[in-house]
Amino acid sequence: MFTYNTMIRLHNTDAAGLLFFAEQFRLAHDAYEAFMESIGYAFAPLIRTSPFLLPIVHAEADLLQRLETGDRITIQIVAERVGSTSFTLAYTLLRNGSETVGR
Q1: What is the pTM of this model?
Q2: Distance in angstroms between the alpha carbons of the first and the last residue of the chain
Q3: For 13-38, b where at least 16 C-beta lie within 10 A, e where not — what string?
Q4: pLDDT (tens digit per residue) in 54-79
Q5: Is 14 a catalytic residue?
């Protein structure tokens, strides 16, 4: 549905140079913002003028393999469920475009 390319940067990692666990959520949220902007719902005007909000009410993540400073990743976003008042997005993190390293 949507892909977002980025790189693991030094500030995303812990003292061992590995992705700090909370940064997986930050990377996913960066992808989410890019996705929303791509479909015409940029957050700045949404927050300032929209009569509705988009709170994230549930988040979970699994890091399946280590990610290190300099790794290039693709984050794929797929709509898992669309309801009348909410929706669920699923994220897959891929290293080098094919190796699943997180979800």
Answers
A1: 0.90
A2: 15
A3: beeeebbeeebbeebbeebbebbbee
A4: 889 999 999 999 999 999 999 999 99
A5: yes
